[in-house]
Design brief:
Elements lengths: L5 H13 L4 H20 L26 H10 L5 H10 L3 H5 L6 E2 L4 E4 L8 E4 L2 H11 L10 E3 L6 E3 L4 H11 L7 H13 L4 H8 L4 H4 L7 H30 L12
Antiparallel strand pairs: 1-2, 2-3, 4-5
Helix pairs in contact: 3-7, 4-8
């Protein structure tokens, strides 16, 4: 390990790029190497971390695809009976696909109207409040669950039995095709949830907690402004400026246009 130099790491980085590996994947590999060398230093197996002197690759901005309200309506209309509640939960809670698929009834507190998400990406549980619309949806679904521990199920077309809905990628893609919606992934529903909250004026700390992000830095990606928001912001500023000019700017005009004497003093 002591013979590994920054130049060797740099050559490894370039080699991976030539092999067609994406910058984000190469950066993750470099992060693993950096962590490994930090451990090696701690265990007295290395003296320095060569990865520290290697610049990580610049990554393109994260892909953003936000579902419009009109697209949401079309998507729900094109969805099958078992897929529609899945999409509604995703858009109203921001839960990840795996969190939704593995959601159990014991995690849904109907009394306090909360969802306790336990099997999370970060390993930390989080609590998501249930809106009125979702509460009614859960009530209707509870009556059809047939005693299953899982919230989301589907009816087997061959046997008529209700089974745990573990996977719904194909059903989602088929619904998108029928609705004429392109370049939309299921994870984009989570992006839509977060972006709508931010646009509605919800603070980033609350959005972070609902999404289960470790840092608010991750949540900041949703603070982008739409064209309509920019237009409204300019209009607000324009209205404020008009008021200031009529009440204050004109009052300052005599002072601003008063000539100074030879010594730079303003005559009384």
């Amino acid at each position: 390990l002591r013979n590994v130099s920054p130049l060797m790491i740099e050559k490894f980085k370039q080699k991976r790029l030539k092999e067609g590996i994406k910058p984000a994947s190469v950066n993750r590999e470099l992060s693993v190497l950096k962590t490994a060398f930090n451990i090696a230093i701690k265990w007295k197996m290395a003296d320095e971390n060569p990865v520290r002197d290697v610049r990580f690759l610049r990554q393109p901005d994260p892909r953003e695809r936000i579902l419009t309200e009109e697209e949401e309506k079309r998507l729900l209309e094109a969805s099958t009976e078992h897929l529609k509640p899945v999409i509604m939960i995703a858009l109203r809670t921001g839960m990840r696909k795996g969190e939704i698929a593995n959601l159990e009834w014991e995690q849904v507190d109907m009394r306090h109207r909360e969802i306790e998400v336990t099997k999370t990406k970060s390993g930390k549980k989080r609590i998501i409040p249930v809106s009125g619309g979702l509460y009614e949806l859960f009530l209707s679904m509870r009556g059809k669950n047939g005693g299953s521990e899982f919230v989301f199920q589907y009816e087997d077309p061959k046997t008529g039995e209700r089974k745990h809905l573990k996977y719904f990628r194909r059903a989602f893609e088929s619904a998108c095709r029928r609705a004429g919606i392109k370049k939309l992934t299921f994870h984009d529903l989570r992006h839509t949830f977060a972006s709508r909250l931010v646009r509605a004026g919800v603070d980033l700390i609350t959005v972070k907690d609902l999404l289960g992000h470790h840092s608010v830095k991750t949540t900041e990606r949703y603070t982008h402004s739409g064209q309509e928001q920019k237009r409204k912001a300019v209009e607000i500023l324009g209205n404020q400026t008009s008021g200031i000019r009529s009440e204050k700017v004109l009052k300052l005009a005599p002072i601003c246009h008063t000539e100074e004497d030879d010594e730079g003093r303003i005559p009384a």
